[in-house]
Amino acid sequence: MVEEKEASRLPALRVLLAILLGILATLGAGIAASLIAQLFGGPEQAPAWLTGVANHTGMVLVSLVLIAILSHGRWDLYGFRRPHAFSLTGVLIWSGGISALAFLIGALLPEQDMGFMEEYPVWQEILFIWIYASLAEEVVTRGLVQGFLDPLRGRGIRLGGLLLSTPVLVGALFFGAMHLSLFTVGFHPAVVIRIVIFATLIGLVAGYYRERSRSLWPAFLAHASANVVGSVLGWITGVAA
């Protein structure tokens, strides 16, 4: 209760600190990926899946260390707990629907440069993209960032009877901004902007259900189902969008 009162007095500072914590976690990811790449003589020689695993492992490890320090042993405050009742159907419909819409828009637009995009074998896509990457990114965004901002959950933007709280909004925006890194591998700006927008929307769904359930589990399901829908539509149509 004391922490919530203090946070309410300096909300802007807490938001800034949350963003800095998220950036610190992503820097850890970059360092881990770089170290792995150097073992193979550079990023071009290193297997894409291994670099990706190293990147996300670094992200998770830094996040867990920061959460351990900040939580004082209260891991449940950062989403590491069994969820309260939540609508699994709602999670799947919203996240899968947003992903399908993003895919449809991408498929209808003129073909644009997707930059360097390594095609993973199916088993690697399932294990890494669907499961591991989804889990790792949720630990950072809905665990570390949104968990740190939880004392501000009474603030936000109200849309009718729905409150999109400050923790949900900041976590979703941070998640979308993480995809700006696609500029560095040669993606067309229009592609990056589209991905950032739809990643932010999926982040809103994940964050909303994370806040309602008090757990990372529904957020992971939202994230993973969005990745699954995108992959499956790509396999069916043969379109990378």
Produce the secondary structure layout:
Elements: H1 2-9, H2 11-39, H3 48-71, H4 88-108, H5 122-148, E1 156-159, E2 162-165, H6 166-178, H7 189-213, H8 216-237
Helix pairs in contact: 2-3, 2-5, 2-6, 3-5, 4-7, 4-8, 5-6, 5-8, 6-7, 7-8
Report on the structure:
This protein is mainly alpha-helical. The chain has helices at residues 2-9, 11-39, 48-71, 88-108, 122-148, 166-178, 189-213, 216-237; strands at 156-159, 162-165. It has one domain. Helices cover 70% and strands 3% of the residues. A hairpin with a 2-residue loop joins strand 1 and strand 2 (162-165). The mean pLDDT is 89.
Overview in brief:
The protein is mostly helical.
The coarse silhouette is: globular
Largest sheet data: 2 strands, antiparallel
Distance between the amino and carboxyl termini:
46 Å
Portion of residues within helices: over 70%
Radius of gyration: 18 Å
How would you write the strand order of the largest sheet?
A: 1-2
Count of helices?
A: 8
Content-based structural category = mainly alpha
Q: How many β strands by DSSP? A: 2
Strand content: under 5%
In terms of per-residue confidence, which ranges show pLDDT below 50 for 5 or more consecutive residues? none
Total number of domains: 1
Strand and helix order: HHHHHEEHHH
Mean pLDDT: 89
